Amino acid sequence: MSNQPETVHVTTRRVKCDGASDIRTHDGVNPAALGHPRVWLEIDEKGYVDCGYCDKRFVLKDDAHAH
Fold first, then answer.
1. What is the span of the domain harbouring residue 49?
2. Based on the structure, what is the number of domains in the chain?
3. DSSP per position, 32-62
């Protein structure tokens, strides 16, 4: 089993993460309650940024706009 963080490919340099965006609502449970506080992250010249809460990595797609 891999302990690699989840990687998300995005098209913008500014991204948000709450650790629960991909969790579906089930039986009235709010997915955000299962995650972490929402944070906004900025992808720099490295082409990626990691969330400090959940370690999810956001990678800028090669064909994405630089703004």
1. 7-60
2. 1
3. GGGS---EEEE--TTSEEE-TTT--EEEE-T
Q: pLDDT by residue (tens digit) across 5-52? A: 799 999 999 999 998 866 555 565 555 566 899 999 999 999 999 999
CA dihedral 52, 16, 21, 6 (to 10 degrees): -50
What residues are paired with 16 via a beta bridge? 40
pTM of the model: 0.73
pLDDT of residue 20: 81
Residues 6+ apart with CB under 8 A from 21: 31, 35
Instruction: Give CA angle at 38 (22, 61), nearest 5°.
Output: 60
Residue found by looking up tokens 């797609």 in the block = 61
